[in-house]
Amino acid sequence: LFYDSKTILQEIVQADEHNGNLEYVLLDESGPDHNKNYTVEVHIGSKKFGCGEGHTKKAAEQEAAYQTILELREKEK
């Protein structure tokens, strides 16, 4: 699930036309060039969802997407 969380989240958002646009927002970029750390947050429409960190933007986006999927599944219960 985690490896391709961005694709899974995209499919979830597209399946529900009321959700709005999916966007990955870079919140922070820190550390030296050889060891950067990125923090990314998922926005769906005007709502903020999961946040993720990683040593690459892609890794941070995957983590944020994964956290968002978990949040959305929790709300379904």
Descriptive report:
The chain has helices spanning 5-15, 57-76; strands at 22-30, 37-44, 47-54. 22% of the residues are buried. By secondary structure, it is an alpha+beta fold. Helix 1 (5-15) packs across helix 2. The radius of gyration is 13 Å and the shape is elongated. The mean pLDDT is 91. A hairpin with a 6-residue loop joins strand 1 (22-30) and strand 2 (37-44).
The N- to C-terminal Cα distance equals 19 Å
Helix content: 40-55%
Q: From the alpha carbons, calculate the radius of gyration and give it in angstroms.
A: 13 Å
- Total E-strand runs: 3
The topology string of helices and strands comes to HEEEH
The portion of residues forming beta strands comes to 25-35%
Shape: elongated
Strands of the widest sheet, in order across it, are 1-2-3
Helix/strand/pairing category: alpha+beta
| Individual helix count | 2
Q: Please outline the major beta sheet.
A: 3 strands, antiparallel
Overall average residue pLDDT: 91
- The poorly predicted ranges are none
Q: Helix and strand layout, with pairings?
A:
Elements: H1 5-15, E1 22-30, E2 37-44, E3 47-54, H2 57-76
Based on the model shown, name its key terms.
single chain, 77 residues, alpha+beta, three-stranded antiparallel β-sheet, 2 helices, 32% strand
